[in-house]
């Protein structure tokens, strides 16, 4: 009986030690699990819209490689595109190629640590990157009320932060999460995520402070960010608000005619 008890105790100790080790790994390497600058699933689609490659300097002296397309800043809104947590600018060519069809100018930035940029990504750092991009657009003579903030995946967390109490023309959130704590809990339900996580991106607490018209897009079969999070963000958003929810889109939504039509309708409402 004594040997059996000792065996059980030893098993419990091993499980506890293993749990603590995994917890430590999650804590110290969490940003490696959140940001994937080296991922590149670019399949060679050619850029068929003219862009100017520019460098945007942040307050902490990091230069961000960015692409700027100026179609007609006086007559058309300008999209600031804030991409997700993986890949390079080239990975978004399949999206920005379609922006020419919806009558907008656009600026897409590569985050610090991405696309060869210096620095390491963090919540605070990405907020700084986005704010620097807005400042750059304003220096080009583009007013705040003519800027549309478009956040994709992780970029929705940045968009929610910078859009608070501002006068942007509109906000677009594609595949948004409520908070990084909530999203991480779906992947690591048995760990104290709230205590461990450094970059929390609490969009659900910030969306009530967004006064601009907002479009939220999400696919029901999203395997990365649960669809209910997109619906929750829509419920929390102020009016005027619009949604584009689909039954078959995964996390990276298909840029088909229907989605583009919804984008155009939203942009037209802002004019």
Describe the structure.
It is globular and about 80 Å long. It has 271 residues and is of the alpha/beta class. The protein has a single domain, classed as 3-Layer(aba) Sandwich (Rossmann fold). It is built from 10 helices and 8 strands. Strands 1-2-4-3-5-6-7-8 form an 8-stranded mixed β-sheet, with helices on both faces. The mean pLDDT is 92.
Could you give the count of β-strands? 8
The largest β sheet comes out as: 8 strands, mixed
Q: Overall pLDDT, averaged? A: 92
Structural class of the secondary elements?
alpha/beta
**What is the top-level CATH class?**
Alpha Beta
Helix content: 25-40%
The number of distinct helices, counting runs of at least 4 residues, comes to 10
Q: Roughly how many Å is the radius of gyration?
A: 21 Å
Strand content: 15-25%
């Amino acid at each position: 009986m004594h040997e059996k008890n000792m065996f059980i105790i030893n098993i419990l100790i091993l499980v506890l030690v293993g749990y603590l080790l995994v917890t430590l790994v999650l804590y110290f390497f969490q940003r490696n699990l959140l940001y994937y600058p080296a991922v590149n699933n670019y399949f060679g689609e050619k850029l068929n819209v003219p862009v100017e490659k520019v460098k945007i300097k942040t307050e902490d002296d990091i230069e961000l490689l960015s692409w700027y397309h100026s179609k007609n800043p006086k007559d058309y809104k300008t999209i600031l595109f804030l991409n997700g947590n993986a890949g390079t600018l080239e990975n978004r060519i399949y999206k920005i190629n379609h922006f020419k069809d919806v009558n907008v100018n656009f600026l897409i930035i590569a985050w610090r640590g991405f696309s060869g940029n210096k620095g390491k990504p963090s919540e605070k750092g990405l907020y700084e990157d986005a704010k620097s991009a807005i400042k750059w657009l304003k220096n080009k003579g583009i007013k705040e009320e003519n800027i549309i903030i478009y956040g994709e995946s992780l970029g929705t967390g940045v968009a929610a932060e910078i859009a608070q109490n501002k006068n942007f023309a509109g906000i677009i959130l594609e595949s948004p999460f409520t908070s990084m704590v909530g999203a991480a809990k779906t992947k690591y339900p048995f760990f104290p995520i709230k205590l461990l996580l450094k970059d929390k991106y609490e969009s659900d607490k910030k969306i009530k402070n967004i006064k601009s018209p907002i479009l939220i897009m999400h696919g029901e079969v999203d395997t990365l960010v649960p669809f209910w999070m997109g619906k929750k963000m829509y419920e929390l958003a102020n009016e005027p608000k619009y949604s584009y929810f689909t039954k078959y889109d995964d996390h990276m939504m298909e840029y088909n005619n229907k989605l583009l039509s919804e984008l155009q309708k939203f942009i037209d409402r802002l004019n």
